[in-house]
């Protein structure tokens, strides 16, 4: 690769957040070249996750660094690589991942975790690992902070190579963007974390994109009963298309949700998944699982300082609770095969994209998510 290609800066458009709740500003920014073990990517598609929404609204103190480029669910093409990067080259089709994998640390070498000692998801991180600096700046030279190892609301972004996954160039990039977060998180929680067995019963609390990805994962492994719980009645039709067998709207029942679940499945479900980021919902999910062997998997982001709504003695009844990060997928080593499974139709992606808009309409896409009208709005750059 020509060195001039590596060293030049790029001026491009990005959606910049200047403060919590303020409309994102589409403006020209400067993107520096990738440094050692970094990659610069041309983003072709990106979408908006509830984590982006929560960060934009300022719900989590750890995410209040401004100005900032949000976004973490995307796909694109490698534009250039920095010194030392050998597994990626210009032109490669890639997806960014917020939970990186260096492949060398004690964590990456362990089969018991998908966390990396250096590049795991970290909401406090807003600069690059190499030098503690930003690779984005305004046209007058002021730094613009990074977000979740990715910052995909930009025509070009710079990531640590540990956070870039090369995929089959035949894979449709407009669908592969979903593997950056929601699909991998939800399906992986079923396949890797819970290891849901065929014929078992599942309850999913919160039917956003991650919750519906849990439904899809449960359908794909042959769960016999998949119960969806959500206060939005519109989620019933969407869930049924993906694989729901039953639906409970907590606003329309006169008893606790866990009791209603046990009306559907005697004793409770084998597996429950909490995808709402609400501790009261988490308790209902826990109580919905079957006495003796039920497993509850936590997927929702919980910014509240409240602690787990459980008494230690309740765990002696045999129920278990565990959290899942990025569906327990090791991103760089396992996601390429998962992408192939999606291409082969094992996991269906089309139902998850409810809207498509040009990148300049990103504030409209945020509003669709706020109003509960969109599942995933795919933005074209």
TrEMBL record:
Signal peptide: none annotated. Pfam families: ADH_N, ADH_zinc_N. Residues 209-332 form the Alcohol dehydrogenase-like C-terminal domain. Its cofactor is Zn(2+). Keywords: Metal-binding, NAD, Oxidoreductase, Zinc. One of its GO terms (cellular component) is cytosol. CDD domains: alcohol_DH_plants. One of its GO terms (biological process) is formaldehyde catabolic process. One of its GO terms (molecular function) is S-(hydroxymethyl)glutathione dehydrogenase [NAD(P)+] activity. The keyword Metal-binding applies. The keyword Zinc applies. InterPro entries: ADH-like_C, ADH-like_N, ADH_Zn_CS, GroES-like_sf, NAD(P)-bd_dom_sf. Residues 36-168 form the Alcohol dehydrogenase-like N-terminal domain. Belongs to the zinc-containing alcohol dehydrogenase family. Class-III subfamily. Homodimer. PANTHER family: ALCOHOL DEHYDROGENASE, ALCOHOL DEHYDROGENASE-LIKE 4. This is Alcohol dehydrogenase.
